[in-house]
Amino acid sequence: MIDGVICTWEAGGDPQPLVALAEVPMTLAGLSRFNVENALAAASAALAAGLPRDAVVAGLRDFSPGIEHNPGRMNIYSLPLGAGGSCSVVVDLAHNEAGLEALLEIMDGLRGSASRRLLGLGAVGDRQDDLLEKLGEIAGRDADVVAIGHKSKYLRGRTLESLEGHLRAGLERVGMTDVPAYDTEVESLAALVAQAADGDVVGLMCHAQFDQVGEWLAEHGATGDDPETLGRKVRAQSE
């Protein structure tokens, strides 16, 4: 990759441009590093298998992170705010440390330097204690505002008190205390949006209520970001 363009090389030749990252929706205009890596690997494998370059480019351009193709994976919305302006909302499963760090990285790339990251933190019950605490630690370290949103449907043998206690232990380890907790993911999302200002980014670790979250967002005027909208947001933060 050279200057934001996926390129190919042949022995003894010069790099040949294949497609710009800005034209590959799954990379989220280059914000999603792991999907940049996936795009490079997919292009390499497809070309090595003998697929035509035009077909490879068309495939990279066509696969988007929207709900219709990839529900629950970095779905990004623009949400108007009652006080004026709008915030971005990112909905993702983010079920482990790497997933949460990737979610926060995307949130960071969508916000301006004066804007905040507001995170709906949650986890399912069948995770080790240290993993739950690490999720809390990452959230408290990298988000500006955190609200816990419970997934009671997925306690999987753990008590709600135990799950919340380990999340709070991680949060408190990095100095974040008095974090509110809500019974559902939708309630935590609503509470965070109520605090959001123009340009802020709200992220939600969504596992139990994906459909309900989508309905809530639609009822409040949210629209899914198409590649052009996302590209504009990313470029605005780099200018």
Task: Give an overview of the whole structure.
There is one protein chain. This protein has helices spanning 33-48, 53-62, 97-110, 129-142, 160-173, 185-195, 210-219, 227-238; strands at residues 5-8, 16-20, 75-80, 86-92, 117-121, 145-149, 181-182, 201-205, 223-224. Strand 6, helix 5 (160-173) and strand 7 form a beta-alpha-beta unit. The model has no long low-confidence stretch (mean pLDDT 90). The strands form two sheets. Strands 7-6-5-8-4-3-9 form a seven-stranded mixed beta sheet, sandwiched between helices. It is of the alpha/beta class and 239 residues long.
Count of helical segments?
A: 8
Average pLDDT taken over every residue: 90
Task: List the uncertain runs.
Answer: none
Report how far the terminal alpha carbons are from each other. Answer: 22 Å
Structural class: alpha/beta
Which percent range describes the beta-strand content? 15-25%
State Rg: 19 Å
Biggest sheet details: 7 strands, mixed
Strand order of the largest sheet: 7-6-5-8-4-3-9
- Apparent shape: globular
Strand tally is: 9
Task: Tell me the series of helices and strands, N- to C-terminal.
Answer: EEHHEEHEHEHEHEHEH
Residue share in helix: 40-55%
